[in-house]
UniProtKB/TrEMBL annotation:
<comment type="similarity">
    <text>Belongs to the UbiH/COQ6 family.</text>
</comment>
<comment type="pathway">
    <text>Cofactor biosynthesis; ubiquinone biosynthesis.</text>
</comment>
<feature type="domain" description="FAD-binding">
    <location>
        <begin position="4"/>
        <end position="343"/>
    </location>
</feature>
<dbReference type="InterPro" id="IPR018168">
    <property type="entry name" value="Ubi_Hdrlase_CS"/>
</dbReference>
<keyword id="KW-0503">Monooxygenase</keyword>
<dbReference type="InterPro" id="IPR010971">
    <property type="entry name" value="UbiH/COQ6"/>
</dbReference>
<feature type="region of interest" description="Disordered">
    <location>
        <begin position="389"/>
        <end position="409"/>
    </location>
</feature>
<keyword id="KW-0472">Membrane</keyword>
<keyword id="KW-1133">Transmembrane helix</keyword>
<keyword id="KW-0560">Oxidoreductase</keyword>
<dbReference type="Pfam" id="PF01494">
    <property type="entry name" value="FAD_binding_3"/>
</dbReference>
<keyword id="KW-0285">Flavoprotein</keyword>
<dbReference type="InterPro" id="IPR051205">
    <property type="entry name" value="UbiH/COQ6_monooxygenase"/>
</dbReference>
<feature type="transmembrane region" description="Helical">
    <location>
        <begin position="6"/>
        <end position="27"/>
    </location>
</feature>
<keyword id="KW-0274">FAD</keyword>
<keyword id="KW-0812">Transmembrane</keyword>
<protein>
    <submittedName>
        <fullName>FAD-dependent monooxygenase</fullName>
    </submittedName>
</protein>
Length: 409
């Protein structure tokens, strides 16, 4: 029987970041992961995330950003348009006096850098290949029974174990969810024309296609959201036919494309836990919420969750209070539920606003986009959301001072 202060279940980017944030507090921390530990290796960009300025500031403060940025692709522009219409929106780093609007990062590279840094802390024990068979709570601790038979006790348990969280399901925490009736096709394609460090998204009546710039100036990662039947058909196409379909859907904005990776097909569902705290257990990141990938905010939202929780635990330690204090956990739940609700609503409004191909709504959308594109002040709220400069940010993710982001690379 082993006891520690905090057990974090899940060694994805959120779980590793939380462990790294908490490590300097002197707590005994255990990190559990059913999969293998991150291994050094070159980024293959099979799964990517768009990190915004808030996430960049957080990761820079942890000392891992330089390693992540070395393999990431910064983008200086974003273009959003409606297919077969004249509506178009553009955003640029130059108009915001920033070197970049965000970075397209390889998910495994993020994990590798976080794990490498975390390995330097002797008070953090990482247990990989460790599945959980049972969870129970008592007055003094929460207990995890591992598949190996080991019993682990801790004062606080953090579930960072993803959208299909074992912890959340074991505790039967209520969940609001719906199926978007879309699957995302994810792949890497080579382009004829350079992407010019521009993130692009084109909206079709049956779903959006995003083209995300990679470090190679003639490679992009795509996220194509379409109904399940069409996604299955597209995945089964020969490579050349699939590349032609993506070229057509992107309206040849980068010229003819060529498939250079395997295709992944991912069902898209919205999940939102109605209860993020039960006793000594707290949910973070995808275990608490998952949203449509159309604005690329999923990982950013999860990183802000763990930064907020770490901030509250740090404050509690400074006041020599208990880290499992119900009031602390209630504060976290109120704070982050509110932020998640706001982003889910914004994404749902945005998604539904572009749904359907009827002529009149399409014309009205295009007029609205054209007007908005010409009004820089009206675009600011959208820019603040994309940059990670809106909402109630944790201290570790806030700008140090006005204009401080201008020096970021």
């Amino acid at each position: 029987m082993q006891h520690c202060d905090i057990t974090i279940v899940g060694a994805g980017s959120a779980g590793l970041t939380l462990a790294l944030l908490l490590a300097p507090l002197g707590l005994q921390i255990r990190l559990l992961e059913k999969g293998p530990q991150p291994q050094p290796g070159a980024a293959d960009f099979s799964r990517v995330s768009a990190l915004n300025l808030a996430s960049q500031r957080l990761l820079a403060g942890l000392g891992v950003w330089s390693g992540i940025a070395a393999e990431a692709a910064p983008y200086q522009q974003m273009e959003v348009w409606q297919a077969d219409s004249f509506g178009r929106l553009g955003f640029s780093a130059a108009e915001q006096q920033l070197p970049a609007l965000g970075w397209i990062c390889d998910n495994q590279s993020i994990r590798q850098q976080l794990y490498q840094q975390l390995s330097q802390h002797s008070n953090v024990q990482c247990l990989f290949g460790s599945g959980i068979s049972r969870i129970s709570q008592g007055d003094q601790n929460v207990a995890l029974q591992l598949e190996s038979g080991d019993l682990l006790l801790s004062s606080l348990l953090v579930a960072a174990d993803g959208a299909n969280s074992f912890i959340r399901e074991s505790l039967q925490l209520p969940l609001t969810h719906w199926d978007y009736q879309h699957h995302a096709l994810v792949a890497t394609l080579a382009s004829t024309e350079p992407h010019q460090a521009t993130a692009r998204q084109v909206f079709w009546p049956d779903g959006p296609l995003a083209l995300l710039p990679l470090p190679d100036s003639r490679q992009v990662s795509i996220v194509w959201s379409v109904p399940p039947e069409r996604a299955q058909t597209l995945q089964a196409l020969p490579a050349e036919a699939f590349a032609k379909a993506v070229t057509a859907a992107s309206q040849s904005v980068l010229g003819p494309l060529q498939l250079v990776s395997e295709r992944q097909r991912i069902p898209l569902r919205m999940r939102y836990a109605n209860q993020w705290v039960q006793g000594r257990v707290v949910l973070v990141a995808d275990a608490a919420h998952s949203i449509h990938p159309l604005a690329g905010q999923g990982m950013n939202l999860g990183l802000m969750d763990v930064a907020a929780l770490a901030e509250l635990i740090s404050e509690q330690r400074e006041q020599q209070g208990a880290i499992d204090c119900p009031r602390l956990l209630a504060r976290y739940q109120r704070w982050r539920k509110s932020e998640a609700q706001s982003l889910i609503l914004a994404m749902e409004t945005f998604k539904r606003g572009f749904a359907g191909g009827a002529l009149l709504p399409k014309v009205l959308r295009s007029i609205g986009m054209s007007l908005l594109d010409k009004q820089s002040k009206l675009k600011q709220p959208m820019m603040a959301l994309a940059l990670g400069n809106s909402g109630d940010l944790p201290k570790a993710a806030r700008p140090a001072q006005p204009g401080s982001d201008a020096a970021l690379g």
